[in-house]
Specification:
binds 6-phosphogluconic acid; single chain; 32% helix; 12 strands; Rossmann fold; three-stranded antiparallel sheet; alpha/beta; 7 helices
């Protein structure tokens, strides 16, 4: 695992965009990019759209999604489209908008098989970009929810009581099979969870993915790194 610490969120976004760009260059024509929502990655996606890359060989997909209509400002794929995919000739596979979230997750799981290669163990994502919540969630895998325990599916819809809403999320086994895993974390309010995940013995969803990932990199700004020991 690598940990990189930056003076501020802007420098973090610069470095994250450079790392993603380098990874795409090395991975085309099989570059798949799994993207999260949240506020931290937006600046990274906006920088990335200026990169001159073989975008037509890049396959984007959503790591998690909120159960709201396609144009809703809360929709992760709307943010990812606004920030990046509406500006480059790459495809973004979005979660279909249908009334039944379980059926939508089933359909998305089928569609993922058309963009991600299959290897021993199942579908194999390329680079995935994740954030971390102050409760240790990553993707829409919230501590204590059943979705965290799912081992026989790649993508699920689940009711999150704390949010009183449905969330779609890639499951632990799919995320743990990624070739590279990038965590982006910014802000003083994340300092405690960053220390807990990287140095504590808690079993947060973010910990389980980071520890099982074959190639994890954490890009953290100084504020979010404020409680790390070294
Ligand atoms: C979402 C996410 C989620 C996010 C974290 C961190 O839909 O909200 O995909 O897992 O990455 O909550 O979000 P911030 O970057 O906004 O702190």
């Amino acid at each position: 695992m690598r940990i990189r610490i930056f003076d501020d969120a802007a420098r973090l976004a610069d470095a994250a965009a450079q790392e993603i760009e380098a990874w795409i260059r090395l991975s085309t024509p099989d570059a798949s990019l799994g993207l999260s929502g949240g506020s931290t990655p937006r600046a990274t996606y906006e920088r990335l759209r200026r990169a001159r890359l073989p975008w037509d060989q890049v396959k984007g997909w959503m790591i998690d999604e909120r159960f709201v209509p396609p144009d809703d400002p809360d929709r992760n794929s709307k943010m990812v489209g606004d920030a990046l995919f509406d500006h480059v000739p790459a495809d973004l596979l979005t979660v279909p908008w249908i009334e039944d979230p379980i059926a939508a997750a089933d359909e998305y799981q089928r569609q993922l098989a058309t963009v991600l290669p299959r290897a021993a163990g199942g579908l194999k994502p390329g680079l995935i970009v994740l954030g971390v919540g102050t409760d240790g969630h990553t993707a829409s895998l919230f501590p204590g929810t059943e979705a965290v325990e799912v081992t026989d599916r790649d993508f699920v819809a689940h009711w999150v009581p704390r949010l009183e809403s449905w969330r779609f999320t890639a499951t632990m086994p799919l995320l743990q099979r990624a070739r590279r895993t990038m965590f982006l974390v910014s802000g003083a309010h994340k300092a405690q969870i960053v220390a807990d995940v990287l140095e504590g013995d808690g079993d947060y969803p973010a910990t389980q993915i980071s520890q099982e990932s074959r190639d994890a990199v954490w890009l953290i700004d100084r504020e979010a790194a404020g409680r790390l020991s070294a």
